[in-house]
Amino acid sequence: MPKQVLPFLMFQGDAGPALDLYTSLFDDARVLTLTRFGAGGPGAEGTVQQATFSIAGQVFRCFDSPPVHDFTFTPSF
Description:
Layout: E1 8-11, H1 15-25, E2 30-36, E3 48-55, E4 58-64
């Protein structure tokens, strides 16, 4: 059975703009799922709670992490 890797990109408030940028750069890219934090949630209202998108058949996940970290984008993939 073939194995597949699902890259998971963690942001601190910039997942929405990154999602827009990544999907605008490729003709076949599209957002598959998108959920945003609401008022009173653990993350800032309107930031990405979770999203999946595809580019050339490769699916990616991304989100805005509510906890504050010493980095703005995950330093690992």
